[in-house]
From TrEMBL, chain A:
Residues 23-246 form the PBP domain. It comes from Falsiroseomonas tokyonensis. Keywords: Signal. It comes from the Bacteria. Transmembrane segments: none annotated. This is Substrate-binding domain-containing protein.
From TrEMBL, chain B:
It comes from the Bacteria. The keyword Cell membrane does not apply. It is found in: Cell membrane. The keyword Zinc does not apply. The chain crosses the membrane at residues 39-60, 67-91, 103-124, 160-187, 207-228. This is ABC transporter permease. Gene3D superfamilies: MetI-like (1.10.3720.10). It comes from Falsiroseomonas tokyonensis.
Amino acid sequence: MLRRLLLLALLALPLPLAAQERSITVASTTSTEQSGLFGHILPIFTRETGIAVRVVALGTGQALDVGRRGDADVVFVHDRVAEQRFVAEGHGGPRQHVMLNDFVLVGPADDPAGIAGSRDTAAALQRIAAARAPFISRGDRSGTHAAELRLWQQAGVDPTAGRGAWYREIGQGMGPTLNTAAAQGAYAMTDRGTWLAFRNRQGLRVVVEGDARLFNQYGVMLVNPQRHSHVKQADGQRFIDWIVSPAGQAAIASYRINGEQLFFPNATQPEPVS
Amino acid sequence: MASLPGMNDLTSALGQALGLVAGGDAALGHIVLLSLRVSLTAVGLAALVGLPLGALLAVARFPGRGGVVVALNALMGLPPVVAGLLIYILLSRSGPLGSLGLLFTPTAMVIAQALLIAPILAALTRQVLEAMWEEYAEQLRSFGAGPWRAVPTLLWDGRFALLTVLLAGFGRASAEVGAVMIVGGNIEGFTRVMTTAIALETSKGDLPLALALGLVLMAIVLTVNALAQGLRDLAARQAG
């Protein structure tokens, strides 16, 4: 009896794994997934088209790598420089603008660098470095990490001089970075969506926001079907066409946390030639 | 101030865990079923390789056997992330098995977990059966059974002890997060299992929900172990 039961169990197990549906794989970022945006807009797309969207949420650098290897049909990320390189190298494209969100600097309530309420990111970063106040960096080649490094550069500060002391690169996603900053009473840069959805703030609060340099552009690209023949070209393109269409853009604009809009659609703005 | 919120998190986690189970949340149901399916299938696959291999190592004597045993014991400590990366590179569209299109599917997760636990099953099986073989060797040989013929006999006679070996493998598989995160991609409604859901909620800072999911996972593992124990007792009575 035991043997027959085990045999039955073994036979039954693999069956549900083989269930097939029409779907595409999108390599995207933790900010779009963890902020809840995809949970809001993807069901609308699937209802309209019957195409399920499987999202693999990684840092932008990793997401582009997944596209390079041909392991996704569409890449939807936020690091324009890296995306343009991706397109130029023939891995996919053309790249299209989708939406903007913004970054904020968060920090501990006692604000050792004295930057709370500032709108000048460069000055704030200089004061963090001068105070040698702990700062948690993603350190993971993500779009947010790249943006953070550009801001330090604009501030004329080399934070890696404080490596191992006040500048701490943890090589993890946005959530773990905020968890670490909360636990250590440190500053960090985060996208607003992840921040608003983040639950373990402890003493952490927004200290700098509203600087034009903190705006963050998202782009979408089809992985090159000439290079990877299995890429679901028609369905992937359908997703891209939808997300830049008025319907997709309206879905993005309608996503709110506590009444606050997180992502600002701007697909109608043409991609500047670089 | 610091200690009270922590306590609140714990009680809130317990409350949420009960709420999740009682509420019969559909998304959670899918995650639980997928976790069970992936890990049990992985144990089944790994057992097909691991048990005969372990039994063979218990009875056979050949040059280099010591090296194989040491290698198997060392592979018990294979880091899940490394197993995950290996399977990722093999299954990636740019990898040697890319044409199968298995990356970011539950099948990829089964393969990664099977790779992780096959050495555990083989090493533990060898140890269990080697002790039996020392007792039985004379007897089996007197029936004219060589090492090859002894393997099925040993496996069958050791079935109750081997159940514990299988449960150890299942425990390792269901508790594992690094490999399934890499090869499954933690895709909602498709490859999200208990451990990757826990990792996700932790990174979203929702520690009580993460802990609640952890409690649910522990309850599932406990249930599987209790069922296995029950079956074992039942079978032992029938056999006895």
